[in-house]
Structure prediction request, 74 residues.
Amino acid sequence: MIIYDYEACNGCQDCLNVCPRGVWEIDARNKKAKIVNPTRCIDCTACEFQCPVRAIRIERALIPKSPQIIGAPF
Ligand code: SF4
Ligand code: SF4
Prediction:
């Protein structure tokens, strides 16, 4: 499961570039990362380690859950 701190994101795109599953995109409106394919995540933790501001945490779960997004205005 992805836990994403929207407020902390600086839009660097590192998560997009490292993710092997196309889970992330950058939102053109505000230049912040956006989870577009949450069910494709395989919990590899690459994005968690790559994010320079620690805006992403991956929690391994036996039963897949929806992503948690902190601070997003939607
Ligand atoms: S944990 Fe891996 S597959 Fe999931 S979003 Fe991060 S980089 Fe992509
Ligand atoms: S790596 Fe972190 S700071 Fe960079 S775009 Fe992704 S979530 Fe935002």
